[in-house]
């Protein structure tokens, strides 16, 4: 076991900063323990590792286990948002000003791990969150590795790139993952080293690198880089709900599309993802006028 302590430079909210890494309440790679400590299992360049984080007396205390433990501790400040600069954001709307004031401890995490965020983002393409979370849980449970150290029961490290590429078709089907999404994950796994290089690229180059893989579009690339790179400008395009939430929160427009959203976010160029995070924290969704998206199940097809 290795340890490290990190002192945030100002107000800090551990749960909101790292909460975007959790894929549903039963994520095998992310747990919040009854004592409030946060557990995270990840596959690092050095191998599997488990990280336990505890906020105490204005500091974050970290413990790590496994071959990847040292890597997790070395990159701890980036993971906790130490490289993020929330002062670069200037609110220009009363809702954003209020959200920025009420959540001074929000930071944008940077994991430095592309495939870790890319796979679940692909699983979330064009399905409900519950469907994607179920697939993630099942695939990690059946094909991942046990989290090193004294991790809570059931915690798993996601498969490595080779293991993702070797998952048989019937296992994807069992997890409720259709052929398009499973094929995109396999293609990404086969070029994983090239995709991991995107963690050190600027916004434009990283977006282009990820979208060079068939099956990865702007939505998936942005969702990935928000987490792997801590990209404050990676605004999610092609989302079913986000444009309407942004439009409704800022102007009362319940029918806003991507173009309208980008126009509203133009004053926050370079910080558009942060603006969206704050809107989701303080904004509201427009009244629902259509039935909820039906949950499909390809296992019965």
TrEMBL record:
| InterPro entries reported for this sequence | Alkylbase_DNA_Glycosylase/TA (IPR051912), DNA_glycosylase (IPR011257)
Q: Where is the signal peptide?
A: none
> Any idea which UniProt keywords this protein has?
DNA damage, DNA repair
* Coiled-coil region list: none
Q: Which SUPFAM superfamilies match?
A: DNA-glycosylase (SSF48150)
Xref: Gene3D superfamilies: Hypothetical protein, domain 2 (1.10.340.30)
Protein name per Swiss-Prot or TrEMBL: DNA-3-methyladenine glycosylase family protein
Q: Which organism is it from?
A: Streptomyces gamaensis
């Amino acid at each position: 076991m290795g340890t490290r302590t990190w002192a945030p430079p100002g107000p800090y909210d551990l749960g909101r900063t790292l909460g975007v890494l959790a894929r549903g309440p039963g994520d095998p790679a992310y747990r919040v323990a009854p004592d409030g400590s946060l557990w995270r299992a990840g596959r690092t360049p050095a191998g599997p590792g488990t990280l336990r984080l505890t906020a105490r007396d204005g500091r974050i205390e970290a413990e790590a286990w496994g071959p990847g433990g040292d890597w997790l501790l070395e990159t701890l400040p980036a993971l906790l948002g130490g490289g993020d600069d929330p002062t670069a954001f200037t609110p220009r709307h009363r809702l954003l000003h209020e959200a920025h004031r009420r959540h001074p401890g929000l930071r944008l995490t940077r994991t430095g791990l592309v495939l870790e965020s890319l796979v679940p983002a692909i699983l979330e393409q064009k399905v409900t969150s519950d469907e994607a979370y179920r697939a993630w849980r099942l695939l990690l449970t059946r094909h991942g590795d046990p989290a090193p150290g004294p991790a809570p029961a059931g915690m798993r490290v996601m498969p490595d790139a080779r293991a993702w590429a070797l998952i048989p078709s019937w296992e994807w089907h069992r997890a409720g993952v259709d052929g398009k999404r499973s094929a995109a994950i396999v293609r990404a796994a086969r070029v994983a080293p090239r995709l991991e290089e995107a963690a050190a690229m600027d916004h434009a180059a990283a977006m282009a690198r990820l979208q060079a893989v068939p099956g990865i579009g702007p939505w998936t690339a942005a969702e990935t880089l928000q987490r792997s790179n801590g990209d404050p400008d990676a605004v999610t395009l092609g989302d079913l709900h986000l444009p309407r939430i942004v439009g409704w929160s800022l102007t009362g427009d319940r029918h806003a599309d991507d173009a309208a959203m980008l126009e509203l976010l133009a004053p926050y160029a370079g910080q558009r993802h942060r603006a969206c995070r704050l809107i989701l924290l303080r904004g509201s969704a427009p009244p629902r006028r259509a039935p909820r998206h039906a949950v499909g199940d390809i296992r019965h097809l």
